[in-house]
Amino acid sequence: MSNRKLLISFIVLIAFANTSIAQTLNENTGWFAWFNSYKFSKNWGLHFDGQVRSADNWRYVRNVLIRPGITYHFNPKNNVTVGYAYVGTFNRLVGVPKNSLTESRIWEQYINNMSFGAVSLQNRFRLEQRFIERQADDIFSQRLRYFVRTIIPLAKQEGKFSKGPYAALQDEIFFTIQNKEKLNDSFFDQNRVYGAVGYRFSPKVDLEAGYINQYVKGLNTNVSNNVIQLAVYTRF
Question: FRET pair for 44, CA 20 to 30 Å: which of 28, 108, 149, 236?
């Protein structure tokens, strides 16, 4: 598959993902993320990502996410991970009993990595068991997520991409598969489309900045969140 065909495929995917957007509440936020993987033997490794997300119009820190896990590598192209996630939500609302809410998750995922010359393509399937604290009643739910991401070098490469500028394109779609009637009463939960530019300093470190459109299906109000994200990727 050529770089042009791969790029066209992502544009089509992005267009399709956003066709369902109707009248929504618009927000503007900022996210900072660090994604890290550490391989300590031929088959075993650790995963960690941490994220900080702002409230609308960058007013304050609304969400903190910490997600560790342990990974088994079948080979360089396929791996599975099991982990835990802490998600803290810190609001500044008036007239609610609790402005601090916590969600705990157990999660399992499978990743397949492919390459087409210097271009990489990753497919990820993640299942989450969610223990959600709410204002009145805590609930348990399960969610399925599918994620696809490609990195396209912006300078000519000899063999595998190891250093230089690149473009990143990705999409992730979320489906509620248990207790959806207690959340948004919909199988579809949300979609995140992302485009970014970055620089690979070495095979171990990437820095990128980009834009996410996060469309969230709500019970009464849908949200279209315009996100500016700064992300660091490390691999050891």
Answer: 149
